[in-house]
Every structure is written in structure tokens, then in C-alpha cells.
Design goal:
Shape of chain B: globular
Number of helices of chain A: 0
Number of helices of chain B: 0
Largest sheet of chain B: 7 strands, mixed
Helix content of chain B: under 10%
Radius of gyration of chain A: 13 Å
Strand content of chain B: over 45%
Shape of chain A: globular
Order of helices and strands of chain B: EEEEEEEEEEE
Structural class of chain B: mainly beta
Radius of gyration of chain B: 13 Å
Number of strands of chain A: 11
Structural class of chain A: mainly beta
Largest sheet of chain A: 6 strands, mixed
Number of strands of chain B: 11
Oligomer: heterodimer
Order of helices and strands of chain A: EEEEEEEEEEE
Chain lengths: 112, 112
């Protein structure tokens, strides 16, 4: 059974810091991995999607990497801003079941 | 292109009452999903439709939850009777090819 774990559960950093969010998964049989952002009381916004054959994806100040063999992904946020404060969710699309399995999220607070 | 629409955005009910949520997916998306997200956790799949047929409802508590997707477009999710532990955000998502899901803004349900 696929399990997705995100560490840390919460993170507080001063504005301007570079930071890394971690995601690990137990089964390497995946189609892709996605990172989502969720603001309080809102739905999910897709940030980056990495296909299983890819190693990384970049969008602006965000960079996500994927190491399928070790079951790990990281989301790197450069020069963090208060507007980056949100919960970040990692999800893998299982190639065995076709289901999207989510981690529990990392809640990020960037202080001005 | 319009995104996934959900209503209502918020709902407060007493336990043992019934409630219904509505979802309109992105035009042309054959696959529709309902997720339950309890506070502090990642979303969990309740039911998946392909057009108007159910693909997976293994995690749907069928004694109180029901869902339908008439004409393969809009969908409704109903809870009857509601319990305190049903308090959560209910997210609807749709997909064209099953590889990437697009999420709506969610409905926040509070059961008192």
C-alpha cells in the first residue's frame, strides 16, 4: 500500500530564506508526483508536476526534484516571501491503482 | 477556461441532519473525483466516476454517503445522516486523462 509522508509538519522561517520541504513515498510504482499549495479554507493549486521519468521541474522560485528509486521528492523555495505562507501537499499518482495519494502536508509560515 | 466549480463553499449543520454538495467539472473532463480532507490531513478519495459510472467507491461510507453523476457532467455528494466526524473539507476534482487532476475550491462542512 502506497504511503506518502511529509516532513516537517510545520515550518516557520524569516522572509528571504531559501527552504526545502521533503516528501517520501513507499512504492516507486508511480506515474507522476505533484506538489500542491493550499491556502486556508481554499482548494488545491497545482504548483509542479514531475513525470516518473523526470528528475526535476522548475517554475519561478520553485524547484521540485524526484528520486523515484529512493522514494523521495523535495520542493525547494528560493528567497521565501510572506505570500508563500500556506500548506504544501505532495501527492503521488500510483501506477498500480491509478489513485492520487497525498501526504499530510507541511504548513509554512514566512515571517516579514 | 473555467475551473472546477463547487457549491456551497461553507455549510454548518446539526448532527443527524442531511447535506448535499454540488460539483461542476471542467468541460470535457470524463473523470470526476470526490475527496474528504479532515483538518491537518491530506485529502482522501471517497469516490471516482468515469463519465456517469462509478470506478471506485471503496472508501465511501455507503451507510450514510451517496454520490451520483447524472448525464456524466455535474455531480452531487450527499451525507445522511451527518455525524460529528464528517466535519471536513469536501473537494471535487476532474481529469481529462487520469494523469492530472484539477481541484475545485472545496466545501467546508461543520457538523455541530
Amino acid at each position: 500500500k502506497q504511503e506518502v509522508t511529509q516532513i516537517p509538519a510545520a515550518l516557520s522561517v524569516p522572509e528571504g530564506e531559501n527552504l526545502v520541504l521533503n516528501c517520501s513515498f513507499t512504492d516507486s510504482a508511480i506515474y507522476n508526483l505533484q506538489w500542491f499549495r493550499q491556502d486556508p479554507g481554499k482548494g488545491l493549486t497545482s504548483l509542479l508536476l514531475i513525470q516518473s521519468s523526470q528528475r526535476e521541474q522548475t517554475s519561478g522560485r520553485l524547484n521540485a526534484s524526484l528520486d523515484k528509486s529512493s522514494g523521495r521528492s523535495t520542493l525547494y523555495i528560493a528567497a521565501s516571501q510572506p505570500g508563500d505562507s500556506a500548506t504544501y501537499l505532495c501527492a503521488v499518482l500510483s501506477s498500480n491503482t491509478g489513485k492520487l495519494i497525498f501526504g499530510q502536508g507541511t504548513t509554512l509560515q514566512v515571517k516579514p | 477556461e473555467a475551473g472546477v466549480a463547487q457549491s456551497p463553499r461553507y455549510k454548518i449543520i446539526e448532527k443527524r441532519q442531511s447535506v448535499a454538495f454540488w460539483c461542476n467539472p471542467i468541460s470535457g473532463h470524463a473523470t470526476l473525483y470526490w475527496y474528504q480532507q479532515i483538518l491537518g490531513q491530506g485529502p482522501k478519495l471517497l469516490i471516482q466516476f468515469q463519465n456517469n459510472g462509478v470506478v471506485d467507491d471503496s472508501q465511501l461510507p455507503k451507510d450514510r454517503f451517496s454520490a451520483e453523476r447524472l448525464k456524466g457532467v455535474d455531480s452531487t455528494l450527499k451525507i445522511q445522516p451527518a455525524k460529528l466526524e464528517d466535519s471536513a473539507v469536501y473537494l471535487c476534482a476532474s481529469s481529462l486523462d487520469g494523469r492530472k487532476q484539477f481541484f475545485g475550491p472545496g466545501t467546508r462542512l461543520t457538523v455541530l
